[in-house]
Specification:
The protein is of the alpha/beta class. The chain contains 6 helices and 4 strands, in the order ββαβαβαααα. The protein is elongated and about 50 Å long.
Length: 153
């Protein structure tokens, strides 16, 4: 699988067209397609609507297969989670959740197993929450799930 590297942030909304091609002539990846690649980037820039664009790219088959971020980025992480794109933050380990802990919250065991499946939704969400719960905008409800990933429950 092709790997693309950039030191520039990517605006999912403005820098990428609907087919996954970088259309910003000022971007170092200009003219390249990010579809089906491993994309290494610092983070996203721009509006939170960029997460929607990333989900759209995934649904249409034009998203990267994996995104490796240099730092936490809620726009890319949320879009990747919802679009079932593997996402990683350099230096952060994904910690899969223990299904028994999920079941303590009253989640049906079949649903818990589904979430733990091949897409590793819970591992992705756990990474997202471990990172984002440090920021006030994300302190409302997701941090109860973070308690699961940290072993508090």
């Amino acid at each position: 699988m092709e790997e693309l590297f950039t030191k520039q942030e990517i605006s999912w909304l403005d820098d990428v067209d609907k087919e996954g091609k970088i259309i910003n002539p000022k971007h170092e990846l200009y003219g390249k397609s990010i579809a089906n690649t491993v994309l290494h980037m610092p983070a996203a820039s721009g509006s939170t609507v960029g997460a929607d664009k990333l989900v759209y790219l995934s649904v249409t088959g034009h998203a990267p297969k994996k995104i490796v971020l240099e730092r936490a980025d809620p726009i890319t992480m949320w879009g990747a989670i919802m679009g079932k794109i593997d996402v990683e933050i350099k230096g952060k380990e994904k910690k899969p959740l223990d299904i028994s802990k999920v079941e303590k919250l009253g989640i049906d065991p079949e649903i818990a197993e589904l979430l733990q499946g091949p897409a590793s939704f819970l591992a992705q969400m756990s990474l997202f929450l471990q990172t984002m719960c440090k920021y006030p905008a994300f302190l409302i409800r997701p941090c109860s799930i973070q308690a699961l990933s940290s072993g508090a429950i």
